Amino acid sequence: MALDAAEPHLQLRAALGQIEALLHENAFLRQSVAPLEQALADANRLALHDELTGLANRRLVTERFQRAITHREPQSQRVALLFMDVDGFKRINDDLGHLTGDRLLRSIAARLSNCVRACDTVSRYGGDEFVVLLTDCEGEDGALAALEHIRAQLREPHLIEGAPIEVSACIGLAIFPTDGEDFDSLVQSADAAMAEQKPRTKGSKGECRQRAAEPSRARS
Known about the structure:
Layout: H1 2-48, H2 58-71, E1 78-86, H3 89-96, H4 98-115, E2 121-126, E3 129-137, H5 139-155, E4 158-160, E5 163-165, E6 169-176, H6 183-195, H7 197-200, H8 205-211
Antiparallel strand pairs: 1-3, 1-6, 2-3, 4-5
């Protein structure tokens, strides 16, 4: 009987010993895999974000677009896309240097990020081109209001190395599904809407700002 009474106690001690050994082993394993986890996190970040600005890249903004149109309520909230580029950016690079140009792009990226909601996405599409994905916006009026806000914020001088730099941008708007039923076609529509502003505004940045918010065509 005494031996039987001791067995649960011995089993408990053995179990505690195994738990302690596992905890020690897990702590060692956690320490060992921590650099691998960080490397994977860095690789994932680089795969989905622009290295210079930290914004979403094309792959990530495309994925978020697909998610947005999958979960939206039909005939209610809309998904809109803004496509923009910076006027005269090549001249800024040529006159002030690529380092200043990079700093300006980071400043523009920060401005754009501060203009949108948590559910929206700002992406550096390439060079001085940016895409803003607006989810759950109230149709064209809501998208145009967001565009006007972005335009006003970008118009404020950017302080780069203590020197103010003024820039302007032309922005094209496209709304899903009126202007395109997939991401690429929506980008093309917004790019075309932006391009329509260019011939009218050659040599006049102010007019480009003013006309960028106008609907590019009648919408059905």
